[in-house]
């Protein structure tokens, strides 16, 4: 049961990540479109990029939630009832705006080279 939930959470995180990348890609296409007024293209692209990057908080929170849940699962004995796993999932914070360390973190800080694992 818990591994199925984890798989769904990973699928959703991948979907959100793809959506974020798609938003940035569309903004770059607008910037490259020579048929558009450059100033209008910059304004539109900026709005799209900011909107896409707002997804970073949700993605970060989802990853932190999954890591926390898996760490807790790893400590449980094999005979643990499903209700304990369900309780772990339900205890996770699912609203990035309620976590001050995440709220708007995409807009703060220095962003440089992407760190690949």
Describe this structure in words.
Helix content is 65%, strand content 0%. By secondary structure, it is mainly α. The longest helix has 31 residues. The radius of gyration is 19 Å and the shape is rod-shaped.
- Beta-strand residue percentage: under 5%
Termini gap: 28 Å
What's the overall geometry? rod-shaped
Number of strands: 0
Helix content: 55-70%
Total count of helical runs of at least 4 residues: 4
* Radius of gyration based on Cα positions: 19 Å
The low-confidence runs, each spanning 5 or more residues with pLDDT under 50, are: 111-117
Mean pLDDT: 82
> H/E order of the elements?
HHHH
The secondary structure category is mainly alpha
Largest sheet: none
């Amino acid at each position: 049961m818990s591994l199925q939930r984890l798989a769904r959470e990973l699928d959703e995180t991948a979907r959100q990540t793809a959506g974020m990348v798609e938003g940035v890609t569309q903004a770059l296409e607008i910037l490259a479109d020579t048929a558009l007024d450059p100033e209008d293209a910059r304004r539109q692209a900026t709005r799209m990029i900011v909107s896409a990057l707002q997804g970073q908080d949700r993605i970060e929170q989802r990853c932190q939630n999954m890591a926390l849940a898996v760490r807790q699962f790893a400590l449980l004995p094999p005979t643990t009832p499903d209700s304990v796993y369900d309780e772990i999932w339900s205890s996770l914070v699912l609203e990035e705006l309620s976590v001050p360390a995440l709220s708007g973190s995409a807009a703060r800080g220095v962003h440089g080279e992407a760190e690949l694992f």
